[in-house]
Amino acid sequence: MAMKRGPGLELVGNPFIKKRNLEWSLELSGSTRDSDGSSSLDEPNEYELQKGEAVPEASAVEAGKTKVEDHLTYFAGLLAKAVLSPFPSGMPKLSIEGYCKLYETNSSNPRGAHFIIHQHDHPIAGTHYDLRLQINETSSASWAIMYGLPADPNSQRLNRNATETRIHCLWNHLIETASASTGSLLIWDTGTYTVLSERENSKRGDSTSESESEHDPSPELTEQEKLHRAFQARKIRIQLHGTRLPNNYVLNLRLTKSEDLAGRARSSRAPTRRRRRGGPAQGRGAAARGGRGRGKGKAAEPETTSDSDADSDSDPDPTDDRLEIINAPAQEARGEEEVSAMEKEIRELEDASVRRANAYPGAANSVASVHQRRWYLSLDRAACGFARRRGAAGEKAVWERPDADAAETGGDAGGGRLAFPFYVRGVEAERSVLTGRLGAEVLRDEGVVGYVGRKGWRPVLK
Length: 462
Fold this sequence. Notes:
By secondary structure, the protein is α+β, with helices and mostly antiparallel strands. The chain has a domain at about 90-270 and about 325-445. It has ten helices and 14 strands. Strands 3-4-5-6-12-11-10-9 form an eight-stranded antiparallel barrel, surrounded by four helices. Strands 1-2 form a two-stranded antiparallel ribbon. Strands 13-14 form a two-stranded antiparallel sheet. Strand 4 (about 125-135) and strand 5 (about 140-145) form a beta hairpin. Helix 2 (about 70-80) runs antiparallel to helix 3. Keywords: Ligase. This is DNA polymerase ligase-domain-containing protein.
């Protein structure tokens, strides 16, 4: 917004600038300023951007089109202005100050153990939830989980497919933004994690989280080192200490031998090109359509299933809900902007250095992560405080909490924190733990108009 100002001592004569042009000042149209020029923030903090500072779009920073020196100051300043006032009642809230201190404590720290869960409503891949765990001072491993984290011990879909994605820079944990090509991204929960030792008696469910330290064979290791060991063993047992998740929330992440081999085979293939609507196939277009045509008469590659090295509480769900953006169904053409977004994704897949390292520029793949391996993620019911109760003859066994928490039916467990069981309900209901915004509100605040997400997502409610 341009506005005229009166003369002052700050106006310095310049022979190359016309005097009338010195009477104008520029401010961002989205900023809120009081009459004295100060910023009107719901949560004033030391990370506020300086007045007059040029502020690039968050989506451009996320895409790498614009570089910023201090990601924390940049994103904290934007998010402080986006906090809803009044904040939605009945849900947990992480203050901007707490958010900044959490990141500062873990970033560039060899003992850092930061995690983030993003809700990502992607126009091609659809709605999913990105779980990212810090693996070194600058980077995090990432899994895309279609239906969000499980939290019902008696769910018919206790196991979730968690698709391994690229290694991200740690500053990606700070992002809450939107664009027409990538959809909305909001911070669903964030905090720190603890890697727990593997339980030999996990199937019996008679071990509790209180005795973990007694059985930890290497308590002197950092969480990053423990995560590296567990990652290599393909069995990760991890407790998340967030703002929204219940206390004692523990997950099992495991990768079967068959999925490990299949994932490595997929990552070693040449990049595929999607056939444009009405045009000829390019490159390995048949493979890009989900493998339906890799040679005449040749059957598509069968789905892999769990083998004998599984260690979760139940067998994995065979339904294939992994996210493979290159194999996602094509959306209806919506102009040149959609074509550009698709081409951008293809260029990313064809970037030799990114494919070789499986890491975005600036990130380090210190755990030997492999792109698009399908892990199995499940709730560790025993560690979360549930005990198995045998059912009557012909009835299925039920998992219950023997303590007072068993009476809770989800929702507020103190300070808005979720209680067992709870269900992740998607972009129509889930809000940011930081700003309180829905995905649609993030799109609005970022100036995205006419966004159409992928349809068909349904929450797991039983």
